[in-house]
Amino acid sequence: ETGVTQSPTHLIKTRGQQVTLRCSSQSGHNTVSWYQQALGQGPQFIFQYYREEENGRGNFPPRFSGLQFPNYSSELNVNALELDDSALYLCASSLLVGSYNEQFFGPGTRLTVL
Amino acid sequence: RKEVEQDPGPFNVPEGATVAFNCTYSNSASQSFFWYRQDCRKEPKLLMSVYSSGNEDGRFTAQLNRASQYISLLIRDSKLSDSATYLCVVNANTGNQFYFGTGTSLTVIP
Questions:
Q1: How far, in Å, are A8, A69, A90, B92, B93 from residue B96 at the CA level?
Q2: Which of A1, A23, A78, A42 is closest to B89 using CA atoms?
Q3: Looking at the complex, does the CB of residue A48 fall below 8 Å from at least one CB of chain B?
Q4: Residues in chain B within 8 Å Cβ distance of A2
């Protein structure tokens, strides 16, 4: 296994609520990336955190926000949930060295918005 | 135009067959390339990084063609356990944004 963990595994929320998802990175890794994967699609990049700073962001609105802590674990926060936010949320841990990094995924959090 | 495009399949092949997947990418400045495997309702798992010279890992061979901006994955002697979705991944920037294809579905039939 990758050593990347995520919590919770499943979550059900209603439209308009807020949610916080958590990710613990693999030991020795300094970078966490978050992805949203809708059914039948590939993962879509939300953002990446490197040494507690945002290090790139995909095409997601500001209600998607994140944090990275000194131990390199990370949180993804989504405010004002919409039905289309229902998806598998994946975090990926990596050791960013220069321009190259291999990413290792956690098992994901499956979010359902009703 | 999508950053990464893959034929979604499905590919249904008999055990022992050889199967190849292709993937094209739009950004000529892309620097790193990968193939991931994803089983149903599981997370993607890194299968192979793809190097400029091409690389092989057992029954799996990956190739990169920068001039035509495509990468390929060849699976020889398919096993039932190879059944999964194969995701092509391109890292266009200096380490931060990975672009995934929609995945190609493979089913190996006994």
A1: 25, 18, 15, 8, 6
A2: A42
A3: yes
A4: 45
Biggest CA-to-CA distance, chain A: 42
B62 neighbourhood in chain A, CB within 8 Å: none
Contact A65, A77 (CB under 8 A): yes
Checking DSSP bridges between strand A109-113 and strand A10-13, what pairing results, if any?
Answer: parallel
Say which amino acid occupies B90.
V
Q: Which residue has the tokens 């990094």?
A: A101
Rounded to whole angstroms, the Cα distance separating B14 from B84 reads 14
Q: Does A36 touch chain B (CB under 8 A)?
A: no
pLDDT tens digits for range B64-106:
999 999 999 999 999 999 999 999 999 876 556 889 999 999 9
Kindly give, in sequence order, each residue whose CB lies less than 8 Å from that of residue A78, ignoring residues fewer than 6 positions away: A18, A19, A21, A63, A64, A65, A85
Peptide bond into A8 cis (omega under 30): yes
Q: How far apart are CA B47 and CA B85, in angstroms?
A: 11
Identity of the amino acid at B83: S
**Which of B49, B98, B102 is most worth mutating to test chain A (most A CB atoms within 10 A of its CB)?**
B98
pLDDT in tens, A81-101: 999 999 999 999 988 766 567
| Candidates A42, A96, A108; nearest CB to B43 | A108
The mean of the pLDDT values for chain A is 92
Q: Which residues pair with B70 in a beta bridge?
A: B24, B65
Distance from C-alpha of A22 to C-alpha of A7, rounded to nearest angstrom: 5
